[in-house]
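Re: the request from the purification team.
They wanted to know what the chain is likely to look like in 3D before they choose a buffer screen. I agreed to run a prediction and write the result into the notebook, where they can find it.
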Amino acid sequence: MTADWTQLAPSRLKADMAAQFAELARAMTDGHTAGLQPNQVVDFAIRGVPGAEHAAISMVRGGARPKTIASTDDLAFRVDALQYDSGEGPCMQALAENDVVLANNLPEDQRWPRFAPQAVAVTGVRSMLSLRLFLTRDRQGALNFYAAQPEAFEAEAIPLAAIFASYTSLTLLNIVHEKEIFDLERAVESNREIGVAMGILMAREMCSQSQAFNRLRTASQQLNRKLRDIADDVKRTGQLPVRVPFRQRSRTA
């Protein structure tokens, strides 16, 4: 449930906002957990942005179809899917062109003739606020807020939403960085396994380095298995795995 900020005195409003951002910062730096996750970010966001009833995070890499990686509920997910299918909407515009896109009256908005009527008819959403997330060169993102009421997002909502967008960007960059490190570590480990297997084949079959690698690659293609798995077999057995003829497999089954 979104806080009713209009009912709070200015001093109480400032205190509540300060407490929420302090809680958000603690979640990002908590050494006892895996760190702040996207679903936590959207939960924080709808509590902190006046007028917001639902929120979601969209991401896209290169020219691929965007994906909703976190949402407060199914409605936000469905609104995003309508944008992806139609190729237009506040989120799509934020991903491609603008840092902030505000749509406070979707039924009368002429900017997205395919998306807006569907969003209103299918989900009942009439207001949207989307903010671009600054990630990496080949990754774009957007933090999206939704409300059923028209004119839901007043002027003070935009700077607050921008603060949450900054936290969201930091969270996603941290996740991307961790994944890249994990992928790099796996690649180094795979290369080490492949190198050991090549050395075994070179010593056993008296072949060159390129010949050993080609034999590993050929076995990988013929058996439809990953190269590092073939290398692991060579490391364990001292020889390349071979395809078992179908008739022989049938007799031993």
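For the purification team: Residues 1-15 have pLDDT under 50 and may be disordered.
Please add any questions underneath this entry.
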